[in-house]
Specification:
8-stranded mixed beta sheet; 22 helices; 3 domains; Polyamine Oxidase, Chain A, domain 2; alpha/beta; single chain; about 45% helix; 7-stranded mixed beta sheet; FAD/NAD(P)-binding domain; about 525 residues; 20 strands; about 20% strand
Length: about 525
């Protein structure tokens, strides 16, 4: 067999994150000759772990939603998972989330902080419970995607058929809750600080149903023993067991859609029958060459490309990693291994909205001291996601020590501006030290003196490593027109591109995004290809 024959595949998948891995594993399981290409040495994208000084840290997702379990079961993947309990805290008040029964505790927490807003809080809790019930319906059965409905008659008759009318009812109600969470909360709550405390750890413009469903989803979080990266490792092993080819450290620079050929940075060519694009969608629409394709396809492609160009990436994330000379028990007495924590009930107000926008617009006139003053207030009033891997798996930190991951949402544009101004590293260090100071003064008094090492990933780190425009971790911003499918009833169409044998999957293919979206779109694309060639 010559080299050209060796590089011909039934399907090529570009992007080795969770979506690409999902497509690759199901295509290879079906007997397709596939090639999975990834720009980095490691696979997993934002579902990845790394080891440093005896600590294991998660590079992206801090836990995984239970929807993953259906895929693990279907593929017979041998991954041990443990429950990932979530806590929620404001100032010195912290509660553990144990499912729907914790709603009352959450209500009491809010009332203790905002005693003048009891009536508003009760109205909000009422809406939240209603959304939780709808989400319970949507996730009420095992996902049909991972079931052989033709063979599993009991599932079809006893679960799927009775569930479908309930699902359609729930979806019709959810459609009415697609407005931005902040707008709906303003209809229920007068105190702007209370609105912030409820909503500020979500992406700007997050739809109400998505934001307020999280209280339900928190209780379904699981954590793979050994770190979230164990999921990616298991999928890679399964792809290889199904005789799929994998190619790390390879960047695709051109797609010749009419010839069904992709070209890497070293000018190697790979021929495909079907292509699954599981990487940055803006990059895809930049590197495709249409040449001799039909005029209707080219016209539709150019229209879609223009929509993609107008779409904006969502906020990115700043993650601080701490190696701390304190035992896990020090933290465990106060909260669970996955904590959403706000050090001040004041809330961000306009700090992360009009103030940030104004500062970025007049950047040339803004001096460093003004930026640092803004940064102090931004970090003092923000909400942090704090993960402690060793609290879920004691093997992930040296004995007597703890590894912490502290994250918060931040705009990539701010980091672009700072880098252009020549003080990126100083800015990064300022954020690191300020976060440590804020948490020491509010949550963990001993933290400041017990940090042995610290390092961080910025939005630019995410962009460079994952190749995601703007370092976005969930695809498109809700604040700009979304150029992809964003209605759950249409998710099956989200994988289609204007080119019939090219599919798009992952965080850019459907909004709102996340690990379930990556898995679902990855599986949908694989199913379409398998069905097409049967």
């Amino acid at each position: 067999m010559n080299n050209a024959d060796q590089k011909r595949y039934d399907a090529i998948i570009v992007g080795g994150g969770l979506a690409g891995l999902t497509s690759a594993v199901f295509l290879s399981q079906a007997g397709k000759k596939i090639l999975l290409i990834e720009k980095n040495a490691e696979f997993g994208g934002l579902v990845n772990s790394f080891e440093r000084d005896g600590f294991v840290f998660d590079a992206g997702a801090r836990a995984i939603l239970g929807v993953v379990l259906a895929m693990l079961k279907d593929l017979k993947l041998d991954i041990e998972v443990v429950s990932s309990k979530v806590s929620l805290g404001v100032e010195d008040k912290i509660i553990g989330i144990e499912g729907p029964n914790s709603v009352g505790e959450y209500r009491d927490l809010l009332v203790s902080l905002y005693p003048d807003s009891v009536e508003d809080i009760d109205k909000f809790i009422e809406v939240m419970i209603r959304i939780m019930k709808l989400i319970d319906i949507i996730y009420g059965i095992d996902n049909p995607l991972f079931k052989d409905i033709k063979k599993d008659k009991a599932y079809f008759l006893k679960e799927l058929l009775p569930w479908l009318p309930k699902f359609m009812f729930a979806m019709s109600r959810i459609e009415r809750l697609s407005t931005p969470c902040e707008e709906d909360l303003k209809e229920l709550i007068k105190d702007p600080s209370l609105i912030d405390i409820i909503s500020q750890h979500f992406f700007k413009g997050t739809p109400t149903f998505f934001a307020l469903s999280y209280f339900t989803l928190y209780s379904s979080y699981v954590y793979p023993k050994g770190g979230t990266g164990k999921l990616a490792e298991a999928l890679v092993e399964k792809i290889q067991a199904f005789n799929g080819d994998i190619l790390p450290n390879t960047v695709i620079k051109k797609i010749h859609a009419d010839q069904q050929v992709i070209v890497d940075e070293n000018n190697n060519e790979y021929h495909y029958e079907d292509l699954v694009w599981a990487a940055d969608l803006k990059t895809f629409y930049t590197i495709v060459s249409l040449d001799n394709l039909a005029p209707k396809i080219r016209e539709k492609f150019e229209t879609t490309k223009a929509l993609m160009a107008k779409g904006r990436p969502s906020e990115s994330v700043f993650s601080l990693y701490l190696e701390v000379d304190l035992p896990v028990s020090y933290f465990k007495k106060s909260f669970n291994g996955h904590l959403f924590y706000t050090p001040s009930r004041k809330g961000l107000g306009n700090i992360n909205k009009s103030e940030l926008k104004g500062m970025l617009e007049k950047w040339g006139e803004t001096d460093k001291e003004e930026v640092l003053s803004w940064l102090d207030r931004f970090l003092e009033n923000n909400t942090y996601e704090i993960a402690i891997p060793a609290m879920r798996d004691s093997d992930l930190a040296p004995e007597g020590k703890t590894g912490l991951i502290v994250s918060l949402l931040m705009e990539a544009e701010l980091f672009y501006k700072v880098e252009e101004s020549g003080w990126y590293e100083e800015f990064r260090r300022e954020i690191e030290n300020k976060i440590i100071s804020v948490l020491s003064e509010s949550l963990c008094p001993e933290l400041k003196d017990k940090v042995e090492k610290q390092f961080s990933f910025t939005p630019l780190s995410v962009e460079n490593r994952v190749g995601s425009t703007g370092g976005a971790i969930v695809g498109w911003s809700f604040e700009a027109p979304i150029p992809v499918v964003y209605k759950m009833q249409q998710v099956n169409k989200s994988v289609l591109t204007p080119i019939p044998n090219i599919y798009q999957v992952g965080q850019w293919a459907y909004n709102p995004a996340g690990t379930p979206t990556c898995i679902i779109t990855g599986k949908l694309a694989a199913d379409r290809i398998i069905k097409k060639h049967k």
